[in-house]
Amino acid sequence: MSSEIYAKPDLSKKVRYIRDVQEDKIDWEEREVDIYESTDTIGDDHADIQSHKEGLHTEKHPPTVQRRTFRIAAYCFGVLCFLMITGIILSSILLTLGHHHLQSRYEELSSNYSWLHKLMSNLTFNYTKLQNSYQTLSRNQCKLQDEVKQLNDTIKGKWCPDGWRRFGCSCYFKSDEKESWEGSRDYCRQRGADLVVIDSKEEQKFVTELSVDGESWIGLQHRGSGYKWEWVDTSPLTDIFWEQGLPENYDYRTAATCCNQQEQWRQNFYYNKKNWICEKKMFCGL
Question: At 66, is the pLDDT very low, low, confident or very high (cuts 50, 70, 90)?
Answer without folding.
Answer: confident
